[in-house]
Amino acid sequence: MKKNQIALLCLTAVVMLAVWYIKSPLNSVPSDDNTVTVGGNSTRLDALKEMREALRVERSLEVAALDSIIASESSTIAEKNTAINEKQTISDLTEKEVLMELSIINLGYTDAFVHHTTDGVEVLVVADALSETEVIQIMNLTYSSFTTETVIVTYKAASEFK
Question: 71, 77, 98, 127: least surrounded by Cβ within 10 Å?
Fold first, then answer.
């Protein structure tokens, strides 16, 4: 490639990133109450945001420990491979949890918190009430996303989080 072609490709990439950044839904401004509007109709509660942040910090510490194993010259190749696999597992779990939360919100609920533990998957749905049919629907959705034997579905009204 010639220098002009490379420069043109770089300029195109910068312009595309700038347009994406400007139009990104991640730049929405939070409102003054306990919710944030995402995509026009979903709301997220501050209490669940704090739970997500605590989980994110916990997993970040785990990933940092795994990164130190990977970067260490004294670690064996087997230890490094194990650390890389554990990092991938953490990343996959986080992705599945977020997708599961969004799937529950798409069912019409205000918010949800999904956490995969060693005991199974815990799902907290923000709703005034859940019927047996709704619980089964959420459980089936969870079983299709996670390979686990135990799913615990609980619910709380939004007013209980204030």
Answer: 77
pTM of the model: 0.67
Q: What does the pLDDT profile of the chain (162 residues) look like in tens digits?
A: 677 888 888 888 888 877 777 776 555 544 444 444 444 443 567 888 888 899 999 999 999 999 999 998 998 999 999 999 999 999 999 999 999 999 998 998 888 999 998 889 999 998 888 899 999 999 999 999 888 889 999 998 878 876
Q: Is residue 49 part of a domain?
A: yes
Domain that holds residue 129: 34-161
The answer as to whether 2 is a domain residue is no
Q: Is residue 3 part of a domain?
A: no
Whether 23 is in a domain gets the answer no
What is the count of structural domains for the chain? 1
HEC profile for the chain?
Answer: CCHHHHHHHHHHHHHHHHHHHHHCHHHCCCCCCCCCEECCCEECCHHHHHHHHHHHHHHHHHHHHHHHHHHCCCCCHHHHHHHHHHHHHHHHHHHHHHHHHHHHHHCCCCEEEEEEECCEEEEEEECCCCCHHHHHHHHHHHHHHCCCCCEEEEEECHHHHC
